[in-house]
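Re: your question from the hallway

Yes, I did run it. Sequences:
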Amino acid sequence: MNYPGAVKTVVSALALAALSLLAGCNKSAAGAKGEKGEAAAASVPNGPGELLVWVMPNSPKPEKDMESLLEPFKAAHPDVTVKVSVLDWGSAWTKLTTAAISGDGPDVVQLGTTWCPFMTDLGALLPLDDLDAEIHVQQSFLASTWAAAKPRTSEHVTSVPWFIDVRPMFYRTDVFAQAKVDPKSTATWDGYLAALEKIKAAGIKNNGESVSPIGFPGKNDWNVVHNFAPWIWSAGGDFLSPMGDKCVLNSPEAMKGILFYLDMVRKGLNPKTNMEKNTAQVSADFDAGRLATFFESTIKNVYLQRPPEQGGSAGSHVAGNYGVLMPPAGPVKRSLFMGGSHLAVFKSSKRPDLAKMLVRYMAADSSAQLAYADISGFLPALKSAFASPYFTADAKRSVFKDMVQYGRCYPAVPYWGEIETAILMKRLGNLFDIAAEVNGPYSEALVKAEVDAAVKDIDGQIETHFKSHPEQRELLQKSLAAAE
Amino acid sequence: MFKKLLRSISRNRVPYFFLLPTIIGMLVLQAAPILQGLYLGFLRSRKDKLLDYLSAPWAGLDNYREILFNPNSPIRSGLWDAVRNTACYTVAVTIGTLAVGTAAALLVNREFRFRAAARTLMLFPWIVPTYVVGLLWGFLWQREVGLINIVLVDWLHLFAVKPTWLIGPNTLWAIIIPTIWRQWPFSMLMLLAGLQGIPKDVYEAAEIDGANKWQAFRRITWPLLKPVWAILILHGLIFNVYSFNIVIMMFGNGAGYPGKHGDLLMTDLFRNSFQMWDFGTGAAMSSLLMLAMMTLVFIWYRIFRDQLTGK
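Structure:
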């Protein structure tokens, strides 16, 4: 036997197999890119068939709740089957991007507001300008949701607002009464701070434990950036420059907001022990009566009113003694974090027209918006829904209605996702450690140094983005000019 | 050596023929992803090029330059904290796991009632998924309501003030201890198998010669278990350098950053690659890590070569 010849054959076969695999992977990716366009081009117009919808668990029984939401749509379109898949938030992003890349995704998809610019930039979403012409996104939906619907680097509307998430202040009416604090006095930062000091001085106990004036989590939490945002904005600061191409987090205004928020830890109004908790744990502290005030999504209201057999805490002492207030206004303005989700149609959808009809029903139908708000506890994105007695006749929900006009979303730029999750989560998270003095004595200089480091990281990231997308600078300028 | 191998193949064609599918499978399934990862490290594979996959623009050594020589790169931020933490974590967990595993193996190797039940129960931590371990210990470490501080401070009075575990310098202990808890049963199992492989008459002969328990351990158990320890050390080094689930879940259920005292190489890599959408640099970082691990394995082999080859 010719050994070298045999070895050569075996090695060649192995190399060929490996290369085929690599080429196959490459080809499938490239193929997917081409197929996506073809699928969109060869799409079937309205007609019988199946629509696949991907949503996240927005309510206690996501599948069942979506079924009930979609009943009127199914009744109007008996020949259409709507199949709902619920993705958990942890894995949703990976599944969505995989679907976008492979071209094998759902027809209709729920996207978090900060995801819309990225998915648009990726070219995964079908332009919805024709749907926009029918439902008039700018006129019909809350102003703060427009930016994500038509990201600043896009010339098309690529998603429609579905629901919004604002964070009112939940407070204990009995604790405020005992401390002789007028809830209305919390309307400004100074008033709120004075109220917290008064509650602390009153030394109110709950089952032998001190009731803390406020509770918010530290860095071990998904909401780090959302928690800082209203304080930064209300002080007149911002994360990015108006054009979105520079980080301005270390401006004197933004620093004022950051220091005010951290001071609540420094002054012992928010116990340092909360710095190791996450939102769910602090929320449980509120339910257990350990907190006087707490900022949480409107879904908390539904939880406190829902009977225990349905997973709520109605009937508890706290559920019978709580109220909701508008978060305080800062020295410059009142500006509140607004999150939420949009609905989009994937380019790979085989029934784009039908998918758009479903989006239209879920987002632009007032009854569907109200029905989902009632199920989920989030707020409608459609302005007309707030005229319903569901909001005007309920004291707590009317506060939510008033809050939405102050809502603000993050900049709708395609690089916001990595800035928020990879840089700000870390850098702003470190500020909590500084406030808790886990690495040594606190100083404002340490806070400033950490914020400066965040600015450096963010500017570096933006530069990296523009290196590969120089044309987007012009689009940002155009969008800024249009906004002005 | 090569000629020797070919001669061996020629003499044993049938066995090698049957081994061929496995060899091809391993090469294709392991070599292809490794080659792909190495190749990706030379590409500018960022989010805007996701659809291009391996056709992303060629970046040459840019990704490596960014990691090694650009002090302003966001990738570099916190990297050395992660390297230091990972080194301390890996050494502490590997030693801790071996120590607890050895003690437990010696214990359950003795005759006592309910020994089989005890052995089974001791495996319990090993069957708990690592992400559950992270979540579970995240609750246990809570300063005020966590069971650990209740035991240490309220019951045993070992500390005057309740320590904070999930933020600050104690963070590293908060991830080392649960990892040891999760891994020691595996070490115990391997060492128990090793102990049971030592013939009893060796101990009997030593006893006749007047050796006490310590001498028997020192002169018989210790040297005969060395090959098992060698494997466990290698397994520990590799497994712990690539540790991810426990730390990512303990700090905010995957929220991202465990702090400068708890950030490990894998969480750092995850943040800088997946959350930054920079797969080219991520692949370059992974390749550098693979190189470091290969060096480590080479050193390990030089140290334990005699034990492994039975010389």
